[in-house]
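Assess this one:
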Amino acid sequence: MFIARLHRPLSRLFLSSILLAAIGCSDSDAPTDPGGGATVATAAGTGSLVLDETVLGYAPIPGLSVTLASPAGASTDLLIETDGGIQVNSLFAAAVCFTDLAVFVDDAPVGPGRRVGVTNTPDILYNVGSFGFSVTTALSPGTHTITVRAKPFTPLAGVQCYVSSTADGSTLPGRPKLQAVLNVVSF
């Protein structure tokens, strides 16, 4: 009942990780920060990243950025989770988007990324797919910026891939809600 009332639904993976951490730790070995507990930072997509043959490397997904400060004298452990949608922008039944996604900390990739394929069919044009994954890392003392970025794996001429959207949905037919989220838990 409590989960259903959350303002922003969290992915199952994110919730499972938090529940496992809470169940698996006693008070004496629970991860804490200097303030006495884990902190959560979130960000939501503010628009679509449009991928096509002109995008050659990883580009940041609009709005998916969080800046954290790690205290001096210790490293900060992070659980980083992201999920969102991808839409093919094409009227061609054979159009496909293969998109690589990764989490970056201070402009360097961390953990394994994901490759997601979304394909139109003769019956479904402007098809939609989704991504979701998590990584763990540790931050050295200082201020760090965490972003989620995407790039086309095999861009096809004339085919665009829309990654994420605003809360209102994409600007493509059907206006699907592709809005991506970034959740960062620091311990």
Notes: The helical segments are 12-24.
